[in-house]
């Protein structure tokens, strides 16, 4: 039994490292493709070919590409992503400074997804075919069809501009957090509700549920204790995977609400052609996603031993 | 007590059941066909000059709203049904043109990523080995990038904003789903007896893959493709909203919504209507997707 867990752990870790290397490769390629950094820095027309030569050598750009990648990799491992063109600070430092804001937003959105989405899905499953079910289905359908930035703007129009209830942008207390979090959570909630509903429907028709009911257990016990436990497995996985989605969605949400997180940082950096920041931000985000997936997988393997045998 | 002796005929019942079952699909198809027709006819019924700006008419409200504040000289001959944006361009007309871009991008990206994903999935699942492991690794790497992050980074890499770039970038983000589905199906079928039998009688790998395995994977892919068109349309609009989509002279819903952002307080219509057009289109496609899924296999779980 111990061997299973250890083998799985080792395999999974090896996979994680391979994936992280792959991500670093992608970031590297993307950045090299986006143009010669030297021509960006030496945009002065008075720059001579010798200047180019000098700067290229200083940056190590005259070396063959694989060597450049290795240098890049070494840099990453020591946390060096270059200096931001705009801020004049280490790109990674700037990113890490903005990260907490995004984490705050993401966690709140995630909480909303679990607190709102799951119960709604269960409710829809339990009241299948009723008006409640249809209402929930319609809401989730709309939720998935509306781009979240547009919903954000509409909410701002309604709640901030017309009614003056909430601030339009910025980070602050709870009042600043509500709209962005709700907007960010919209899609994942819709997805989770639908998933929870279908999972629960399937489970409720299974034999052990029939047995529990036949035993005369109260309906609440049946639902909460037995069905929920089994549905929670797949729900946990999906919630874990939604981290990636939330981080991506945060980019747009932060832009709409002026939330000073890493998503907005990245968008601004692209507009300002601040490549070190784009590089660093991309890597930070992907690392978070990879590590989250790893955690989810390991949790899953602890909860469901069948996974380890794969 | 009233006795009901007016039973609907069998034909009537059949008709009702048909409509009830297919209501979503019918509505969806109606919406989508409407959008397609309007989009196709846009250059004819609502011609616009992409670079024309009528600044004197900027930010006029929809013509059906009572004008409390009449902008000076903004009494245009033909009222703007949905108002104008900050450059005085009619929103209804631009919106119709926007549907062209959205549909074009939605369909082409799905086509490309579908073809790539299906072929790679088939090859990878069928032959297995090192190729398969490499492909899986590639999938894992790509899945670690949230969609927008990858799309933005790629747009940065490709330099300029162009229609082709956007299509390419979106297509690249989309192939993974097809790959996984087809690969799973291929692996499942690979070990079955009928495949073994086909090999025994001398069928080439090509023939087996295309003739026997592929048809089993296609239905799921069709359902996926339908949903993905909607996803791609939203994706393209997100990119355009951030200013990283198609060039600004091409009207697209995302960019129109972005334009209206700063006028949220004063000219709410600039952002609202393009968004409504987008939502309607995506909803319609979603209905069609649900309908297709119900027809093909209601138990299909779409992630």
What does this structure look like?
- The complex is a heterodimer of chains A (310) and B (303).
- Chain A has helices spanning 2-33, 37-41, 49-59, 65-77, 91-126, 131-145, 148-162, 174-204, 207-214, 219-257, 262-271, 275-303.
- Chain A has 310 residues and is mainly α.
- Chain A has a domain at 91-303: MetI-like (MetI-like fold, Orthogonal Bundle).
- The longest helix of chain A has 39 residues, at 219-257.
- Chain A is flat, with a radius of gyration of 24 Å.
- The two termini of chain A are 14 Å apart.
- The longest helix of chain B has 37 residues, at 91-127.
- Chain B has a single domain, classed as MetI-like (MetI-like fold, Orthogonal Bundle).
- Chain B is flat, with a radius of gyration of 25 Å.
- Chain B is mostly helical and 303 residues long.
- Classes of the chains: A mainly alpha (310), B mainly alpha (303).
- At the A-B interface, helix 1, helix 6, helix 7, helix 10 and helix 11 of A face helix 3, helix 4, helix 7, helix 8 and helix 9 of B.
């Amino acid at each position: 039994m111990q061997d299973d867990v250890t083998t799985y752990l080792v395999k999974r870790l090896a996979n994680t490292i391979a994936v992280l290397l792959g991500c670093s490769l992608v970031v590297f390629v993307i950045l090299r493709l986006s143009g010669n950094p030297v021509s960006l820095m030496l945009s002065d027309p008075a720059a001579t070919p010798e200047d180019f030569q000098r700067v290229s050598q200083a940056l190590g750009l005259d070396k063959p590409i694989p060597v450049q990648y290795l240098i890049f990799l070494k840099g990453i491992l020591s946390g060096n992503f270059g200096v931001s063109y705009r801020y004049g600070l280490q790109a990674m430092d700037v990113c890490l400074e903005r990260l907490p804001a995004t984490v705050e937003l993401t966690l709140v959105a995630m909480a909303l997804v679990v607190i709102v989405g799951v119960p709604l899905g269960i409710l829809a499953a339990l009241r299948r075919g009723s008006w409640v079910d249809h209402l929930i289905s319609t809401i989730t359908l709309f939720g998935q069809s509306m781009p979240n930035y547009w919903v954000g703007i509409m909410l701002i129009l309604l709640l901030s501009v017309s009614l003056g209830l909430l601030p339009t942008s910025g980070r602050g207390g709870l009042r600043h957090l509500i709209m962005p979090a709700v907007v960010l959570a919209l899609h994942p909630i819709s997805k989770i509700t639908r998933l929870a509903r279908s999972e629960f429907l399937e489970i409720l028709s299974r034999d052990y549920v029939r047995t529990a009911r036949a035993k005369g257990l109260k309906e609440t016990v049946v639902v909460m204790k037995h069905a929920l436990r089994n549905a929670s497995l797949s729900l946990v996985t999906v919630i874990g995977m939604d981290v990636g989605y939330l981080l991506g969605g945060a980019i747009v949400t932060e832009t709409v609400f002026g939330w000073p997180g890493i998503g907005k940082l990245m968008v601004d950096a692209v507009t300002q052609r601040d490549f070190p920041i784009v590089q660093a931000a991309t890597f930070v985000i992907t690392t978070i996603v990879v590590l989250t997936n790893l955690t989810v997988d390991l949790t899953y393997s602890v909860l469901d031993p069948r996974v380890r045998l794969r | 007590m009233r006795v009901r002796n007016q039973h609907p005929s069998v034909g009537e019942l059949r008709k009702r059941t048909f409509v009830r079952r297919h209501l979503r699909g019918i509505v969806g198809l109606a919406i989508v066909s409407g959008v397609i027709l309007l989009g196709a006819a846009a250059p004819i019924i609502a011609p616009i000059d992409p670079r024309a700006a009528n600044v004197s008419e900027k930010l006029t409200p929809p013509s059906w709203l009572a004008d409390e504040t009449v902008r000076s000289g903004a009494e245009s001959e033909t009222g703007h049904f949905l108002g104008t944006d900050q450059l005085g361009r009619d929103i209804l007309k631009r919106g119709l043109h926007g549907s062209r871009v959205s549909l074009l991008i939605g369909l082409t990206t799905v086509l490309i990523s579908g073809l790539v994903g299906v072929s790679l999935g088939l090859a990878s699942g069928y032959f297995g080995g090192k190729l398969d492991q490499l492909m899986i690794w590639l999938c894992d790497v790509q899945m670690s990038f949230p969609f927008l992050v990858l799309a933005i980074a790629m747009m940065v890499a490709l330099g300029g904003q162009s229609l082709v770039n956007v299509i390419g970038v979106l297509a690249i983000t989309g192939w993974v789903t097809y790959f996984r589905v087809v690969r799973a199906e291929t692996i499942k079928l690979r070990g079955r007896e009928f495949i073994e039998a086909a090999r025994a009688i001398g069928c080439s790998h090509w023939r087996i893959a295309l003739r026997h395995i592929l048809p089993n994977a296609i239905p799921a892919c069709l359902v996926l493709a339908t949903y993905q068109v909607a996803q791609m349309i939203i994706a393209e609009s997100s990119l355009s909203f951030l200013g990283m989509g198609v060039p600004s002279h091409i009207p697209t819903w995302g960019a129109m919504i972005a334009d209206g952002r700063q006028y949220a307080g004063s000219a709410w219509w600039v952002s609202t209507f393009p968004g409504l057009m987008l939502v309607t289109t995506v909803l319609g496609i979603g209905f069609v997707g649900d309908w297709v899924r119900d027809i093909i296999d209601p138990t299909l779980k779409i992630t």
